[in-house]
Amino acid sequence: xxxxxxxxxxxxxxxxxxxxxxxxxxxxxxxxxxxxxxxxxxxxxxxxxxxxxxxxxxxxxxxxxxxxxxxxxxxxxxxxxxxxxxxxxxxxxxxxxxxxxxxxxxxxxxxxxxxxxxxxxxxxxxxxxxxxxxxxxxxxxxxxxxxxxxxxxxxxxxxxxxxxxxxxxxxxxxxxxxxxxxxxxxxxxxxxxxxxxxxxxxxxxxxxxxxxxxxxxxxxxxxxxxxxxxxxxxxxxxxxxxxxxxxxxxxxxxxxxxxxx
Length: 261
Hints:
Blueprint: H1 8-56, H2 63-74, H3 81-95, H4 109-120, H5 131-135, H6 137-147, H7 152-167, H8 176-188, H9 198-218, H10 224-257
Helix pairs in contact: 1-2, 1-3, 1-6, 2-4, 3-4, 4-10, 7-8, 7-9, 8-9, 8-10, 9-10
């Protein structure tokens, strides 16, 4: 019996293809250090996927490479191998594998790992990115939207509130907006952990953008990556509530339309 084309590994591979521009530019400008971080992250995640495959017959996924890329790019600098392995292990196990693997997880494992590293080791500086790496977000988003593996409403919602903030005179210092866009594409627009309903996806993007603006205006001294990851974590935790709101509004509309109390 043949399976259909669209299974979770197809989606994971298409996401990997979308992230290729980001990965290539980041590796070119990051050099051997970036390659070493990516290799270490991929190795740790592979080990944990194999552990859960042997212990729980849980199949590994290509999505581990997406998590490895996100953590390698966004983790604080100069953590050292031990701290990085600790953070990746916590994020992979508690954020994904205990739920049954990618596709069943509630939060993005990279978001969990990065939040753990940020809160657990606050003395380490967050990374910055060269302009070509930031510009590579655009083709990554376009590939994701074209293939349908990134939710357009999430990206559109964040764009709308960001444009509104700029139009209303909110001042963004440094490259906060650019980094927020990078985190939006890498973490928030995850097809598994973002909202499932159309309205929920719009609310998902609006909430992420709103939290970024709130942190920019009220969190003095925070690094752009720190702001974006914190916003991504809170948005991810609120996502089930956003879908619940969307479903409740749909049910209420149906009842009014059909004259039911």
